[in-house]
Amino acid sequence: MDNGDTGLIDERLARLVRLAARAFNRTLQIRLSGHGISFGQWIFLRILWTKEGQSQRELSRMAGVTEPTTHTALQKLETLGLITRRNLPGNQRRQHVFLSEKGRDLRDQLEPLAVEVNDVAVGGLDRTAQDALRDALLTIIDNLKRDEEEAATRGARMPPTRNSSVDI
Length: 168
Known about the structure:
Helix content: 55-70%
Distance between the termini: 25 Å
Structural class: mainly alpha
Largest sheet: 3 strands, antiparallel
Number of helices: 7
Strand content: 5-15%
Region (Disordered): 149-168
Protein name: MarR family winged helix-turn-helix transcriptional regulator
Number of strands: 3
Organism: Sedimentitalea todarodis
CATH class of the domain at 9-121: Mainly Alpha
Shape: globular
CATH architecture of the domain at 9-121: Orthogonal Bundle
Keywords: DNA-binding, Transcription, Transcription regulation
Pfam families: MarR
């Protein structure tokens, strides 16, 4: 494939990563929609498949989204009968989220869709190129996480991202 034909060859890496992430999400959403699940709901199911019993606040943090966004997704998942929310003994204020049997069973149907999207995305990349890409992305993530932590020690805080759709 000639990447010059896409008009993106001279784009900054941050924009390319954002466009790739958006394409991953859209491609998975196409597959999930056949099961009545949105991409936003998928994020929480995926977390709960590995670690149930989280509070809404913990799920928000793990998903990297706001609590109102989490609340909306959890309401829909509860309506679909995929999760239940309940208090744990000794804490009547905070509800924790658990998968229903139906929610657990959905994993076998939905996870292969994500694997398929990954396979589509790396089509044409040999194992060496895939490993190099993974290593590079992990390094980028670590570098940016460290920069954010250093900014926090200087008193800088993450501003709200609402109404902020500027490309880097």
